[in-house]
Amino acid sequence: MNKVILIGRLTRDPELRMTQSGIASTNFSIAVQRNYTNQNGERDADFINCVAWRRQAENISKYCSKGSQVAVEGRIQTRSYDAEDGNKRYVTEVIADNVTFLGSKNGNTTIQDESQNMNQNELPQTDISDDPFKDFGEEVVLSDDDLPF
Q: Quick one: residue 22, left, alpha or beta (phi over 0 = left, psi -120 to 50 = alpha)?
């Protein structure tokens, strides 16, 4: 099984590209902190290259920038290519199947909705004293004898 789940921050702005057949792809790198501290008491980070395709790539390019926090779910892939100097290069990267936007670089996790231009902290509030099931019919009364346990 080849599955990886990472949470980290983008180390640079995503690069959106189109293939010759018009399929969008974006390359981005995330910094993922390690669970332990080094000898100086600091947490080191790993910098992991990721690739997303199609609509996912367009959304990452549009809504994320350097410092944005994301969760990436995908698979590890290795590939090779011949560099301009004639040497063969090997690349290991995460092919992102699902990317969830967790927050921005300044820690403010509000995301503007394009259609309403409203941030998530201003969603309409509901009164919890109002019964949400009041229009669903008559009350069902059960006795202890009706319960199977």
A: left
